[in-house]
Amino acid sequence: MNDHRIRSIVFVALFTALTVIGTMIKIPLPTGAFVHLGNAVLLLAVLLLGYVKGSLAGGLGFAIFDLLNGYATEAPYFILESFIVGAFAYGAFLLFKKRPQAIWQLVVIGSVTGLAKLAMTQLKNTVMLWYLGSSWSGAWSAAVIKLPATVINVVATILIVAIAYFPLKAAIQRVTKGLIN
C-alpha cells in the first residue's frame, strides 16, 4: 500500500472517530433532540478530505454513534444523509474553487450545508411520523417542532467551522508535507 492510500485511510478513520466524539458531546433539549458537534466535524471532513472521504467519515461516525447509543435503526439513514448534506457542502465549496480565503466564505458554505441539513431533518421526521399514521400535514407540523435543535446545530456548525477550518487545513498541510519530504 502506498503512502497516499495509508494517509487517506488514517484521515478517514480520524474524522470518523472525531464525528463519534463530537456527536457524544451533546446538550439535550426539551423536544427529545440534542445539540452536538458531529455536524461540524462532518463539514470539516468534507472540506479537508473531499466529498467522498469526508462524507464517508461523517456517515460512519454518525452510524457508530447510533449503534453505540441505542439508535441502531437510524444508522443507515445517517450514512445516506451524510452523503446528501456532504454533496451540498462540497457544491458550496466548489463555488470558491475549493479554496475559501475568508471566514465569510466559510459562513456561506456552512449556511448552504445547514439548509440541506434542515431540509433532510424535516423530510426524515415528516416521513417517519407519516409512516406511523399521522396525516401528511400533521406529520409536517409535528416535524417542524423538532427543528429548533437542528437550527442550533447549524449555527454551532457554522461558528466551529469558521474558527477551525484554516488552522486545521494548515496543520494537515504541514503533516502531509512532512510525510512526503
Automatic annotation (TrEMBL):
Q: Which GO terms describe its cellular component?
A: membrane
- Which InterPro entries does its entry note? ECF_substrate-spec-like (IPR009825)
Give the keywords, sorted.
Membrane, Transmembrane, Transmembrane helix
**Signal peptide positions on this chain:** none
Q: Which Pfam family name is an example for this entry?
A: ECF-ribofla_trS
Transmembrane helix in keyword set? yes
- The organism sits in which domain of life? Bacteria
Transmembrane region(s): 9-29, 41-65, 77-96, 102-120, 127-145, 151-168
Specify the protein name. ECF transporter S component
